[in-house]
Structures are given as structure tokens and as C-alpha cells.
User: Which sequence fits this backbone?
């Protein structure tokens, strides 16, 4: 009888300690995101009956497309041990350049709408890639701090965008541009969502099935060791910043189509939001750690929180305060997670 009681008590003890161990394992593997997500769902569901409805969640999914694209690019440079503060400027410059080119060529070729759209979108991509090249050359070739380099490029790009427009939105874009890229559907799926799906799949393949992805992780883990092992660290870093600018540019084209005008204030807070999405998703600021699927969920979480705060009628200024506080909290928790990861090794 005694042995049975002892066995039962040992079993109960194992069950008691298994839950914290499981939570710790989830935290180490995925970061703080699952816990933040559960807390947000509970809080906003209690605060508003409209929050946990299919229509609202579908709306959140559509709105998160732009942040998902930027966060995927931000993840690339964070994994290398850097970050990109110029992603918002890449969006703004893409918007005003593509809009300006479309308006100009629409007057030259009024009957060739899709040629006009292709020329405008291509010009927008090239302008953002130029910013990415500046970042990549400065950081990879000359060893400039990512903070200083991307902050300087942000200022340069923002100044160019304001110079081109005078701060005035550029309208009269081709109707087909906004109708397809902003509100169009293919097989019932919104075009921006399809673009995001393609980007997610492509990024997952890059990071998990290619040598370039392995090199990016290696550089973030230890750039000196990566260099000694034969990895061309300069080229890999350059590639990371180019891809980051390109993904931000894609988001800029989709946002321009959505608002149907070229604007310099597009993507004003997206640098902070993309870094928050990545850190909350478990991407380490020290580099070498990050998962594509977690970053997608992290971007969705950020937009979900903004949606919940809107339903609670929290002002935009206070939302900035809360989002910044969330980022600080995520960074602090990331430090604990990194120590646990090092301890497990």
C-alpha cells in the first residue's frame, strides 16, 4: 500500500514539474511571442465583443501583409547581428518615385497603361535598392555601425523623397494600378496577400534550404569564425541589406496602390514595428537566431495589438507609448532567453 502511495506521489510530482518545464522549453524555442499572443487574445476579447470575430481577424490578416514583408527583411539583417532603420524610408522613396514615374509616363503613353505601371514599379524598386546598396556597402565593405549607417541613409532617403514631392502627395495614378495591386483578387485571394505568401515561402526556402541562409546564420553566430571558415562575409552582408530594402520596396508598392497616391509619410513607424515584431518573435538582437514562421506570427501579433487598441478606443499617441514599452519589455526578456540558451549549450 505504501509503495503505491509513493508511486502516486512521484507521478503527481512529475506532472507538477512538467508544466513549468514545458513552458520553459516553449520560451527557449519560440521566445515570448506565444505568451504575449495568449495574453492579447484574452485581454482584447474581454474588452470588445467585435475583436474575436472572423471579419475582424480577416481584416487584421490583410493589414498585417505590409508589416510581414518588412519584418521578413528586418529579420535577415537582425540575424546577421545588425538592423535596418531605413526600411520606412525605402517605403516612402518607393512610393514617391513609382508614383512620379507613372504620372510622367501616363502623359507620354496614355494608351499603354501596363507599360506605365511596370516602368513606375521598376523605378520604385531601383530607388529602394539604391538605399539597400548604400547600407550594404557601408556596413559590409567599410565596417560602419549598422545603427549609424542605416540612420544616415534614412535621413538621405527621406530628404530625397521630400525634395521630389515638396511634401505634397502625388495623385492621378493609373486606375488599374490601385485596382489590381491594392484591391485586386486572384482566385478570390487578395493580391497583397498572395504577394506576402510568395515572399514568406521564398524567405523560408532561403533561410532553411540554401547555403546563403546558412551563411547568414553563421555570420550572426560568429562573424570571425564564419570568415575563417571560408564564408564571404562581405558579400553575404551586402545580400542581406539588399533583400531587406527590396522587401520594404514591395511593401511600398502595395501601400501606394492601397492609398492610390505617392506619399512621403508612408512607413513612418514601420522600422520600430518591424524590429518589435522580430524581437517578440524570438529573433535575437545578438544575431544568429530567428525563424521565418515566428516572424510572420510576430508581425500579425503587432497588427493584432494595434487593432485591439483601436477597438478599445486608445489614442494613437498612447498606442506609440504602449508599442515602445512592448518592444523594451521584449528586449529585456530576450536577454534572459539568450542566457538560458547559452546555459543549455
Assistant:
Amino acid at each position: 500500500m505504501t509503495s503505491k502511495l509513493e508511486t502516486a506521489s512521484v507521478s503527481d510530482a512529475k506532472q507538477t514539474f512538467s508544466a513549468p518545464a514545458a513552458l520553459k522549453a516553449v520560451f527557449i524555442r519560440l521566445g515570448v511571442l506565444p505568451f504575449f499572443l495568449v495574453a492579447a487574445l484574452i485581454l482584447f476579447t474581454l474588452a470588445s465583443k467585435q475583436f474575436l470575430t472572423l471579419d475582424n481577424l480577416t481584416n487584421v490578416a490583410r493589414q498585417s501583409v505590409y508589416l510581414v514583408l518588412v519584418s521578413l527583411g528586418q529579420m535577415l539583417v537582425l540575424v546577421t547581428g545588425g538592423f535596418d532603420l531605413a526600411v520606412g524610408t525605402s517605403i516612402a522613396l518607393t512610393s514617391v518615385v513609382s508614383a512620379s514615374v507613372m504620372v510622367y509616363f501616363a502623359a507620354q503613353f496614355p494608351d499603354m497603361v501596363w507599360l506605365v505601371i511596370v516602368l513606375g514599379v521598376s523605378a520604385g524598386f531601383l530607388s529602394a535598392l539604391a538605399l539597400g546598396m548604400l547600407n550594404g556597402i557601408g556596413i559590409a565593405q567599410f565596417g560602419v555601425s549598422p545603427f549609424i549607417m542605416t540612420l544616415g541613409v534614412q535621413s538621405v532617403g527621406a530628404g530625397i523623397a521630400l525634395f521630389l514631392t515638396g511634401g505634397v502627395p502625388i495623385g492621378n495614378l493609373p486606375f488599374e494600378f490601385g485596382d489590381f495591386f491594392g484591391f485586386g483578387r486572384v482566385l478570390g485571394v487578395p493580391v497583397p496577400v498572395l504577394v506576402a505568401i510568395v515572399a514568406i515561402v521564398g524567405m523560408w526556402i532561403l533561410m532553411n534550404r540554401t547555403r546563403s541562409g546558412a551563411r547568414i546564420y553563421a555570420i550572426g553566430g560568429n562573424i570571425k569564425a564564419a570568415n575563417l571558415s571560408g564564408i564571404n562575409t562581405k558579400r553575404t552582408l551586402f545580400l542581406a541589406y539588399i533583400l531587406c530594402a527590396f522587401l520594404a520596396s514591395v511593401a511600398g508598392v502595395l501601400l501606394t496602390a492601397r492609398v492610390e497616391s505617392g506619399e512621403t509619410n508612408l512607413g513612418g513607424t514601420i522600422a520600430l514595428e518591424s524590429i518589435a515584431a522580430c524581437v517578440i518573435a524570438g529573433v535575437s538582437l545578438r544575431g544568429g537566431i530567428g525563424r521565418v514562421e515566428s516572424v510572420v506570427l510576430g508581425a500579425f501579433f503587432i497588427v493584432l495589438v494595434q487593432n485591439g487598441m483601436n477597438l478599445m478606443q486608445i489614442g494613437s499617441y498612447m498606442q506609440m507609448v504602449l508599442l515602445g514599452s512592448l518592444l523594451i519589455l521584449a528586449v529585456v526578456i530576450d536577454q534572459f532567453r539568450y542566457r538560458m540558451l547559452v546555459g543549455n549549450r
